[in-house]
Design a protein that fits this description.
Length: about 350
């Protein structure tokens, strides 16, 4: 994996390794894929206003989330059916994140299961659960996650039902997550309410993350109910179509949270510069799901580790050239808005792919 020197090469290798079904599942979105494109267009529309003559001979970008130290302000978010991209699945992600030093958020719709993974890779990790049973079932899972050593619990709130992902439907491709939803098991997910959040906070001390926040009003309510991490997401454009870019939702959520909880954001973030933009706008950390899936497909845990090392270099380079030597120096003052140079799409962060590199 030392041959990988750019993220372009990793994406190219991923495309070579995946069949059409797995590839479209990874890069596709819901319905018209408008939300998917808007995520990327939003990221590309924020431009840097760099500051000069600051000492950036040493750039530090380490941070922490849920009391856990992280080498860079990035998390590997939950991906259902992650094993479709590489046989090791969530275990390969765990291997890379443990070695590199960031948090993994494990999806309940992947393999290996959460208890097996915890036994294989003990250490800080967040478990994300899709509700497929009643309250007693959920409580049992949370108790088992605590017993297994998980340091956080995540509810994804933007999957009340499984979306229509026409790239998959056209080929009759049904991933594991789609089979679970198609079997009717997502009915409990559709019944999830703020009462569910209140119940978890009252019964369990495990930090709670709510993923899928898309409005200031919901972010404010999360904080009022004691949610430990507010996660801005539109599921990578894979659930409700025609939503705002997540990076454009971020400032209003940060304002609503008012420093009372960390804010994580995902949706269209593919490069180190993208991460820095989100940090300037107030994010504590950035989730990079397609980045994760592409790296896994390129070569499992070693490729994901290589991708994280490249990403770290990009983040530090961007910070230095913007005039910031630590995360505390990143602020909205370093950004402005303008129209993207070209139509955005899911892989527009990698322009050299179309030139054959």
């Amino acid at each position: 994996m030392a041959d990988f020197l750019t993220l372009h090469e990793i994406v190219k290798k991923a495309r070579e390794n995946l069949d059409q079904g797995a590839w479209d599942y990874l890069i596709g979105g819901a319905d018209t894929e408008s939300a998917l494109r808007r995520n990327r267009a939003g990221v590309e529309s924020w431009l840097f206003k760099p500051r000069i003559l600051n000492d950036v001979s040493q750039v530090d970008c380490d941070t922490e989330l849920l009391g856990q130290p992280m080498r860079i302000p990035v998390v590997m978010p939950p991906i259902g059916s992650v094993q479709a991209f590489e046989a090791g699945g969530a275990a390969s992600v765990a291997e890379a994140t443990d070695e590199f030093g960031i948090l993994q958020v494990l999806s309940s719709v992947c393999t290996p299961d959460f208890e097996t993974l915890a036994a294989q890779h003990p250490g800080p990790r967040v478990y994300q659960l899709y509700l497929t049973g009643d309250e007693a079932w959920m409580d049992d899972i949370i108790s088992r996650a605590i017993e297994a050593g998980y340091t956080g619990f995540c509810l994804t709130a933007d999957t009340q039902t499984y979306s229509r992902r026409e790239r998959d439907i056209l080929k009759r491709y049904v991933p594991l997550s789609g089979r679970i939803a198609g079997g009717g098991d997502f009915k409990a997910q559709a019944k999830m309410t703020w009462d569910t959040v209140a119940h978890i906070k009252e019964k369990f001390a495990l930090p709670l993350l709510i993923k899928g926040v898309g409005a200031a009003e919901d972010a404010r309510r999360c904080v009022e109910m004691g949610v430990d991490v507010v996660w801005v997401s539109n599921h990578g454009g894979r659930q409700l179509d025609h939503t705002r870019a997540c990076i454009d939702v971020l400032p209003e959520v940060v304002e609503a949270v008012a420093g009372k909880a960390p804010v994580v954001v995902d949706g269209g973030f593919m490069r180190g510069a993208d991460v820095v933009k989100a940090l300037c706008l107030g994010a504590t950390a950035v989730g990079m799901g397609r980045f994760e899936g592409l790296a896994l497909a390129a070569g499992g845990a070693p490729a994901l580790l290589a991708a994280l090392q490249i990403l770290e270099h990009e983040i530090k380079t961007t910070m230095a050239l913007a005039g910031a030597n630590c995360l505390a120096q990143l602020s909205p003052d370093l950004l402005c808005r303008d129209a993207p140079l070209a139509p955005a799409h899911v892989l527009s962060a990698f322009p050299f792919l179309v030139e054959g590199y």
